[in-house]
Amino acid sequence: MADDKEDVQLFGQCKACIICSKDLDQDTAQQHASLIEENGGDVVIYEPPSTFPPINEFTHIISYTIDFAEYETACDALIPVVKPEWLHMSLAKKKLANPRQHSPDPRLFLNDVVVTCGDIPEGDKDAIIGGVLAKGGVYNARISGLVTHLVDLTVDSDKARLILTKKLNVKIVLPHWFDDCLKLGRRIDERPYTLPDPEILRSPPGAPIRSSENKDIVGASTPEPSVLPNTAKNQHKLDVFEGKQIMLSPDLGIGPHLKSSIEELIEQAKGTLTSDVTKADMLICRYREGVAYRVASRLNKDVGNLSWLYHMLTFNTWTSPLRRLLHYPVSRTKIPGFEGLRISLSNYVGEARAYLENLIAATGAECTKTLKQDNTHLITAHGNSEKCTAAREWGMDVVNHLWLEESYSKWKKQSVTDPRYTHFPKRTNLGEIVGQTRLDKTVLESLFFPSNDPQSPRNAIQNKGQNSTTDAKPSVMLPRTEKTTKSEGSSRDTDNATPRTTEKTRRIGVMDNVQLLTTPARSRIVAGGKENDTPSSTSSRKSKETAAARLQEIAPDIALYEKEMKRVGGVIYGGRRKTDEDRISIGTKKRRSVEPLDENRDEENATDSKRQKKSRCPVSICLLITGYQKWVQNPKKEDADKRQLRELGIMVVQDARKCTHLAAPSILRTPKFVSALAYGPAIVSTDFITQCLKKDELLDPSAFPLQDKASEEKFGFSLAEATIKAKRNKNKLLDGYRIYCVESIRGGFDTFKSIVEANGGKCAIFRGRITLASPAEDSEDDDDMNASNKGRSEICLLSSQTPDHSKLWPRFRQMVYDIGRTPRIVHVDWLLDIAMSQELHRAEEYELSEDSNPQADH
């Protein structure tokens, strides 16, 4: 009896609103309502597009989607939005279930997953359970009717056999599926990971990856649709705008005939048109600017573009304009950092490809149909394509579409080093998850309609008395004051992050919206009715503080850029220069054809194209070249020769760690030569390059050994013996050494750092302070330095005899003495001789002192 009473009162404190949608029809909603009422709760069934009841009346909202007008308001009021499964789970447990595990929010992409684990390692089990719970899923220790996924390595476990024997509706997947989902932050298809025959284990590396249809971007691939929506299938019941007032902004730039057609469609959908932004429920505009856009956004009205309007008319369903990136008005300005980027696409097809092309244009970057050496980024759905191989060879950033979508959503260029943007699951085409990223409303507010603007509701109310001289009705085309113009111009020119508009502010603005857009008697009317976007001639203190904060934010990127500009030899991309006029035309018969391919035709005829293309010679030699005089001041010949060498199986590399062979005209003390010696490559004369190019064939490199007895005598070592010692040392000659270097050393700190690290040591700048200058090492102290030099009684400082260096010596000596070590201030020859001979030398033989000869450095 007590149990029956408990069941009846389960929802006794609940008042729920059930929202009908295409996934939850009226009959099903009525069944859910009966369950709630039978257990003591109150229910209201809402069927769009009728007027939504007051949101504060409810304790729960039941919906399969977050695409209803009051979702944001419900989140602000902390009213949980749950799927109908929450009801059944609560009844099964006889207590209210956790609403987070039944949220329709796509950010909790595992919220309909109930997982159990088979015979997998305990550490993997804990990681999977934690990830599933964090993303809205549920863990169950045993097999039950609620379980949707079993994580296992084989089908031989007890749980797997039970599922197969009883033919339960449970998917048996490898742990790799959860790992890839969590790395991407998106749910991908389980099929390639499903046991007993998972595709990721049986498919060969080069096998084509299938692409699947993506429904998230249907009708959302462009911000400027070219044709009117097709409403024929919904004509008998087209009511998506029932009770709604819609305003079409003048910035749409549409002609009278098209505007008349759109107005007719809106009226067919039972909507009404208005020219008063304060009365409108929806604003349709093109750009994120103008009085109407800012006022509508601050009043928490729905703001979207024509594509969003057409989408609702086509499907007769309301959706949030923030759900799809190209359903929201675009910006005339470019995302900081995207200007000048040239981006190409690979492995995306159909509407997904069109969507990404338009999204690239909206960021301010350039989308290229073909991949060339002057491209900066390649966005690909998977890593198995010739474009990906070429892009990596040419030094481009290869990322997935999440980098582009989240840069646009946050209006900030995201780092390409984030693992989420460079992760490509083995047998998954990421085109299936295109279009799932939402716009960030907080970012939009802080950048495009900040609440500290004089036209915000709060400031309009405060200045009500001052503006009462004008009784004109609010209108979108009202002139603007000089004060407003200056403020808006200043806010547009700075990344001024402002607090979100509070709920109190929104209520005040709505209650007194008649005074919201009143204009002072003294105003400056701009000719032609356009807004004056000229910023103030004197920046405010707030603007200066914001600019300083922005500069501090991008300081690491500036430092990295300056570091790259100082790289010895300059910054080049895969051995090619962007200014080369003939980087495509030269050697077209021998190099792999990427540039002239039409992408759509390439996608459709991929198999035939690959058969027709000449297969490239596999790489047999990775060659590092230094001191080759024929390429000096002749970049065109350099590029042509490198392409010819690649066709012979010789890949020219820039990283000493990747080289198998080193080519030089003689023994040199260049950074490339000295660093490469630590890896023990085969060392050949540059005659090897000349003869291979001349004969157009791959010759035996052992026939071209580098012989330079004069330099060996000069530097006091044997090149052949150094190579043998390097292989024996295995890059650990300086293991345990912490070598310091003055910042302005001749040749550059980065040069000596690369040499030290190639030999297993650590190198840091010494500026006269104990803490190091590198951001990653700022927290290191004397104890850390002591530990790094464990077993080393001496600590060396690379320096020269110049006065600006010698003034640092006393501080260095004191620092080293304080930790019980012996300081050695040495000439750079000490490090160079060690690296070239591949054996340690006594530091005191190269030691500098205040009495040393200043000419020794020259």
TrEMBL record:
Residues 34-104, 104-195, 338-410, 623-706 form the BRCT domain. Residues 452-472 have a biased composition (Polar residues). Residues 195-214, 448-548, 583-612 are annotated as: Disordered. InterPro entries: BRCT_dom, BRCT_dom_sf, CellCycle_DNARepair_Reg. GO terms for biological process: DNA double-strand break attachment to nuclear envelope; double-strand break repair. PANTHER family: REGULATOR OF TY1 TRANSPOSITION PROTEIN 107 (PTHR47667). This is BRCT domain-containing protein. It comes from Penicilliopsis zonata CBS 506.65.
